Each structure stands twice: as structure tokens, then as C-alpha cells.
Amino acid sequence: MMSNSNTHATGYNLSTDCLTKRIYEIVKRIPRGRVATYGQVAEIAGNKNLARVVGNALHKNPDPDHIPCFRVVNSKGRLATNFAFGEGVQERLLREDGIEVRDGKVDLAVYGINNVNELVSDKKLI
What's the CATH number where 75 sits? Predict the structure, then answer.
């Protein structure tokens, strides 16, 4: 039986497929004070047309303390309408990250990842 203290490190390895693990690993790389879009995460994960799959995976985030799903927004900078952890939580977390939110939207020109290579590392994704 897995202890709760190790869940953040390995818990999702037991219950998710390879694509979902790649999504989580990519989202972990979004730096504080920046956001990425669902489409950008999908592109890095291997298929830019899977933005909805990214959204579904993040809605089931098994480890929000280590997988900052709140840093992912839609292609227009809009916050999730049904954020997994409750109404207003994504906005609060983004503001705590130093990101300005106006009318439920983030300015991607200011806070967005401009080049998906910023989220790709030499380390192979799981």
C-alpha cells in the first residue's frame, strides 16, 4: 500500500497513461509568473489537436501541490470556467503567482509562454 507522503511523487504513475504523465510533466515546467495554453501543452505532449485531452487530464490533477494546473489557460487567456478546485481558486492562485487577471482573463502577450521550447528540456518526458 502506498503511503500518502509518497503520493505526490509516484501516485499518478499508477493510475494514468503515458500521455497523461507527459502532460503532468510539461505542466510542472511552467515557471512561476507565466502561463501556457492547453494547446501549447498538447503540442509539446505530441499532438497540438489534443487540447481537450489536456484539460481533462488537468481537471483530474492528482497532485495540485506539484502539478500547477492553474497555470494553464485557454488560447485567448481565459481561465477555466469549471476549475477543478473550485470557483475563484485559479484566479487567486494566478494572482499569488504575480499574474494579473482581468475579467477572468490573462494577457498572454505579457504572461504567456511565447515559445513552447521554454517548456521542453533535454530530459526525455515520461
Answer: 1.10.10.10
Per-residue pLDDT of the chain (126 residues; tens, 9 = 90+): 333 333 444 444 444 468 999 999 999 999 999 999 999 999 999 899 999 999 999 999 999 999 999 999 999 999 988 777 788 999 999 999 999 999 999 999 999 998 777 777 644 443
Residue 27 within a domain: yes
Residues catalogued as catalytic: 69
In a domain, 118, yes or no: no
Cα–Cα distance for residue pair 59/55, rounded to 1 Å: 6
Length of the chain as a residue count: 126
Residue 69 lies in a domain: yes
